[in-house]
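Hello, quick one for you while I still have it in my head. Could you read through the record and tell me how the tokens relate to the sequence? No rush at all, and the record is pasted right below.
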Amino acid sequence: MSLSREEIRKRILKLLANNGTRFFRPKEITKRIGSLSNEEYRIARAVIEDLKDARLVAVHKGGRLGHRKKSGRKEGWLTVHPKGFGFVSIDDGGPDAFISPGNMGTALDGDKVLIGLAAPRRNDSRREGEVLEILERGRTTAVGSFYRNGQHAFVKPDNQKLVHDIFVDAADFNGATKGQKVVVSIDRFESPHGAPEGRILSILGSADDPAVQVLSIAVDIGVREGFPEEIDREAEETAARMEDDTGFRKDLRHLRVFTIDPEDAKDFDDALHIRTLKDGTFEVGVHIADVSHYVRPGTLVDAEARKRGTSVYLVDRVIPMLPEVLSNNACSLVPNEDRFAFSCILRIDASGDVQSTEVVPSIIHSRRRMSYEQAQEVLDNDAPADELETDLLLAASLARTLNANRVRIGAIDFDMPDVKVKLNPDGTPDAIVLRERKMSNRLIEEFMLLANKAVATLMIDKFENTEFVFRIHDIPNRDQIIKLADYVKAFGVKLEHRQGAVSPTDLQNLLDEFKDRPEAAIIEDATLRAMSKAIYSPDNIGHFGLAEESYTHFTSPIRRYPDLLAHRVLKRVHGYLDGEAEDLGPICRHCSEREKVATNAERESIRLKQVQYLERHLGDEFSGVVSGVTNFGVFVRLDDVFVEGMVHVRDMDGDFYEYDEATYTLRGTQRGKTFKPGDRVHVVVVSTNAETREVDLYFTDPPNKKT
């Protein structure tokens, strides 16, 4: 296989870098980088000339070349704007560097690049740079629409940050036809005057199909869809593994175990039992699907689950971490069937304090599967029809105590309802509603939180020297908290902080200020964005948001790979599992990244349906609240559809507006009208763009306030 231009370039630069101060004639370089064909030799000589022209190599007398020290050069990650310019986030800190379209070279959004920095202008802190080298491609595929043009075709990427169409030769169409959504490789991009080149890897379907539109978003973001045949086959064989040869499994089939899940759920990770003991304490069993019994290290299924990191819950489907024969069948704690579990059995006193914790492999038999709605009906009626419903009422009472305890120690309770898009049979949006968190939801949340905390505490107390998977949440960045405090001032509320330092209680007090107010969701979202993101790590630093010294994820191994890792560690330290421990650091970092991918895909799929819903309401009026103000417009969150749109300054007639950054306010210079966060407004939907998921609005009655 012949060497590409990029590979030849890398070999030349590596040769020079590895030889320090030595200088080589061009012909000597071509000999040292390998046995080249005539065509490869021609390319190598051309690359050498390009490197000289770009001043990426040092030129000595006689035309000999050597390594050029990277003075004034920085490495970082490139983010491209849809208009073609970009910014590089410098690895060693400092402000981002601006890259103009003409200085982009062949770099693409997400690439790690080497840039040369220009001399800064006097009294200007901004830095400008030029891409000198692509160190690492951020992506090797793209999703887009296929357009044929004779013997070749182009794929127009859906991602607006990929500003180049991708060229595809006729031999690489792979059956694609005009108007289809496809996945295309990005194999080569050697000249900024040309186009990236690739091959059609898969066909997602018609661009007009609502299901394909959702899938396209997810795949482009990085979600892995579908399982290879060999993995499905291994999963089928694994699902039959009901024999248990450990001798350690505890038989709990006599207990009244039940599950509570969404109405449409099929992967039942967790089940509960509760009973009152003779001494007046409560025994609570949090029974978790024993995925580690089926998914073993070194298997194809395990390797694929690790790559995925998590299941992805899109607006119209679930893309599971495990093949469905495992996630929805063998591992799932379905009712009226024996199932292997990993049980966390807790003894809890009337004050909600845990007196003892036992973690043990078990076999259970769920007596009943309830939806959240069914469980809530039992709680609302408060008239149990049988022993299991009595158990449910007892569990709810204890859950209230647990919640009160968490609030008392300062845990932050984000009470944002979930947005649910109801779809028609053809996948188009029918209605948008909010799913409230009711007591049945909170009941499950409290016991899952309790089990996760108890398992982490057990590992810290008894197995301190064993590497474990912790769910950590760092303290917020002080600058972000100061920005949040400035933001909420516009709503007439003060956030208590000490030069940006806050406690969880400070943030909870802020959320309480907005409880039952129309702006509550906006403030919760702003608070979340101001905080650090929770991640997985073997290094325990505690969990700020929960106000806990240690925490883990143990309760969802069907849909989260870190939970599966936690189960394996627990089994090893208790002698239930043999084999070498896995290196948890890199896996934790990978799973944290995969969680971001899944969250982004889930959010964007919902946003797509919200925008498509508004397509049918062009010209209709909605009420809303101003969620943000910039120098180019006003963001408004619509009350009825829970989606944000923008009123552009250019469309705000009747005045000339100036932006006050300190107060997040647009102020009319002639009439004195102002727009600031928290203002109640009425708007008309002017236009929508499903591809960019953007909504343009127009004020019908802007606030008539003067300052």
Summary: The chain has six domains: 5-67, 73-136, 141-208, 229-471+546-604, 475-531, 617-699. The radius of gyration is 29 Å. Residues 472 and 543 are 5 Å apart (CA to CA).
